[in-house]
């Protein structure tokens, strides 16, 4: 893990750690690491970086790194054993709920047209090993990583997005992604989405996400992990969303037959 921890965090992530905010640096570091554990980037059973290595990567003191790791251990996300290091103990398996794909994609596209998007970071880079494996990428192959904030027409931010997209050859520019619907840009690259899987949960927002969504660090946010597949069955897009629950409600409508089919 020491060798790949840098790949899990962009310059944007690292610059979000600031000592001039009310939130202590150890808690900001804890929230960053917690986010990567909860989204599976640091998988169940993985060995966490040493405190010294964390300090070097994040530009913090070893004491600050230790407090961040202690927070993760206190929450039951990792287990620390003398002489054996620290390992991730968090494991989450979501149950799928089926819903009509076309209607959902139409609503997402409509949401994109009626709101405003600001791109925070756009880069074509080698993804973390877990993301690369999910996208079926070979060693060294790159994908687009995109950070965005979506706001209402009145300018109130309600969603923070991080996405990884493979198979893009054109159209992924800051200008396009702020003026066009991202799903339509993906479609223009010849990627026809035929299956989408979604997991819903909640997470405590990190300091940088809190700033963008006008929340307090550590506040719970509605989170959604969306995985989109092309017609040949390949996973081509992984989207992680965090929503300010005071400004956004996720609602799903199912026909009565679909609802009855989900009952056990």
Count helical runs. 10
Q: Topology as H/E string?
A: HHHHEEHEHEEHHEHEEH
The main sheet orders its strands as 3-4-5-8-7-6
Kindly state the number of beta strands: 8
Compute the average pLDDT. 83
Number of individual domains? 2
Q: Assembly type of the shown chains?
A: single chain
| Rg for CA atoms | 19 Å
CATH class of the largest domain: Alpha Beta
Q: Kindly report the CATH topology of the largest domain.
A: Chorismate lyase
Q: End-to-end distance, in Å?
A: 41 Å
CATH superfamily of the largest domain: Chorismate lyase-like
Please outline what is shown here:
The chain is an alpha+beta fold.
3D structure, described in words:
This protein has 264 residues and is an alpha+beta fold. A hairpin with a 3-residue loop joins strand 1 and strand 2 (85-88). It is built from ten helices and eight strands. The longest helix has 14 residues, at 25-38. The strands form two sheets. A six-stranded antiparallel beta sheet has the order 3-4-5-8-7-6, sandwiched between helices. The protein has helices at residues 11-15, 25-38, 51-58, 62-74, 101-114, 129-134, 174-179, 182-188, 207-213, 256-262, and strands at 78-81, 85-88, 116-125, 143-151, 157-165, 193-204, 220-230, 235-243.
